[in-house]
Amino acid sequence: MELETKRDIYSHEKGDLLPIVTYPSPVLKKIAKPVKVFDEKIKKLCQDMLYTMYQTPGIGLAAPQVGQSLRIFVLDVDYNRVESLGPSSEKNYKFENLNPLIFINPVIKSKEGQMTYEEGCLSLPGLYEEVNRFEKISVEYQDVEGRNHKMDATELLSVCIQHENDHLEGVVFLERLSFLKRNFLTKKYLKGQKRKKNSSHS
Ligand SMILES: [Zn+2]
What we know:
Bound molecules: zinc ion
Shape: globular
Distance between the termini: 40 Å
Largest sheet: 5 strands, antiparallel
CATH class: Alpha Beta
Number of domains: 1
Structural class: alpha+beta
Order of helices and strands: HHEEEEEEEEEHH
CATH superfamily: Peptide deformylase
Strand order of the largest sheet: 1-2-5-8-9
CATH topology: Peptide Deformylase
């Protein structure tokens, strides 16, 4: 499939919904590989990742979360998804204030300050916990054409970049917690997953 315009890639309406991999799948523990060739395949993956992020919905999605061990993540910390009911009470969604971002081969160059934010993850459904992160970061990355960019980020954008970048290192936010909290939450999460699995078989 040929993607013609930038608008086609940065879209909440076009693309394919990709299945999201959940913890503890092995691909989430792997160190992702750099993107070397910026071809149509990479553009299509970015488009599908953004589409999947908006439809799921989430504010960030890394390639390992859709089973691709590549150094790519997408995010949007600004948008609103407004739900309404159609004539035969089907759900419709309107998207406002879209600000889609794509980061390829990102490298966090500087980090300063500290902040705590309650994080969740599409690969750890139902789990939310406060995580310590750097307050301010600067990140270098490439776009879908392979051009270099640099961005300074604070607050939620900074937290989200750090969370997604961790996925490229095979790290989920559970591993950023204290030993006790991590053990407790991992057990709770795995128990929940087991229950879900069992009930889907019965
Ligand atoms: Zn995540």
